[in-house]
Amino acid sequence: MKDKLFSGIQPSGDIHLGNYLGALKNWIALLDEYDAIFSIVDYHAITVPYEAHELQQRILDATAIVIAAGLDPERSTLFVQSTVPEHTELCWILGTVTRISDLERMTQFKQKSQQFYQTVNMGLFAYPVLQAADIILYKAKAVPVGEDQAQHIELCREIVRKFNKTYGETFPEPQAILGEAKRILGLDGQAKMSKTMDNTIGLAEDPKSIQKKLNKAVTDPARVRKTDPGNPNICNIFTLQHFFSTPSEIEYVDRECRVAGIGCLECKKILGKNIIAEILPIQEKYENLKYQKKYLQDILAAGSKRCQEIAATTMEEVREKLGMR
Ligand code: TYM
Question: Which parts of the sequence bind ATP (predicted)?
Answer without folding.
Answer: 10-12, 18-19, 146-148, 184
